Amino acid sequence: MRYRTSTFRSRLGSVLDHDTAPPACGPESGHTDGAGGTTLITDLPYGPKAAEVAREAVAVALHGAEAVLLDDARLITSELATNAFASGRPPLVLCVDRTNPTTGGLEVEITVTDGGCSQPAPSSPQVPGEEAESGRGLVIVEALADAWSLTTGAHGTRAWCRLSREVRSSTAST
C-alpha cells in the first residue's frame, strides 16, 4: 500500500508549477509497488534542524542510489525544508517516493508540506542579489529538478519535485 502526504488547499492559495503534467498519484503513473518502489514519510521538526533531519531522511530513502542523484536530492530537500520552516507553519512533513519505472532507471519524488502561509507563491523564482545571504532555494530547485511545483495557501503549502535518472549501461572496455 502506498501512502502520500496531502495538504488542504485554500481557494485563496496560489500555485507555481514547472511541470508539463501534475504529479501522478496512482497505478496509472507507471510506478510499481513492492520491490519496485519505496515511500518514506516523516515529520520534520519545526525549527532550524528541519533541513538537517530532511537531508538524513533522504539519504536513508535513497540508500544505494548514485552519488550525484543523492547529492541533488539532499540539496533540494534541504532547501524545501528550510523554506517550509522559514515561511510556513507546523506541521512540516517530508515524503520521499523512490520508484523504478517499468522503463528502467530511478525516479524520485520529494514533497515537503507545511501548515500554510499567508504569502502567495511567486510567479517565478527570483534570483537574489549577489550579496544576499538567502533567497536562492527555489532557484536551486529549478536548476536541479526535472519538474517541480509550489502550491501555497493559508491552510497548507506543498513543495514538490521530481528527479529522474536513466539506467546507464555499463560496457566493458577491451
What is the distance, rounded to the nearest whole angstrom, between the alpha carbons of the first and last residues? 46 Å
Q: What sort of overall outline do the alpha carbons produce when their principal axes are compared?
A: globular
CATH top level of the domain at 36-125 and 136-165 is Alpha Beta
Low-confidence stretches: 1-35
DSSP strand tally: 6
In CATH, the architecture of the domain at 36-125 and 136-165 is 2-Layer Sandwich
For the biggest sheet, the summary is:
6 strands, antiparallel
Query: What structural class results from the helix and strand content?
Result: alpha+beta
| CATH topology call of the domain at 36-125 and 136-165 | Heat Shock Protein 90
CATH superfamily of the domain at 36-125 and 136-165: Histidine kinase-like ATPase, C-terminal domain
Strand order of the largest sheet: 1-5-6-4-3-2
Proportion of residues in extended strands? 25-35%
Q: What percent of residues adopt helix (DSSP H or I)?
A: 10-25%
Radius of gyration: 16 Å
- Chain-averaged pLDDT: 75
Taken in chain order, the helices and strands follow as EEHHEEHEE
Q: Helix segment count?
A: 3
Region (Disordered): 16-38
GO molecular function: protein serine/threonine kinase activity
InterPro entries: Anti-sigma-factor_SerPK, HATPase_C_sf, HATPase_dom
Pfam families: HATPase_c_2
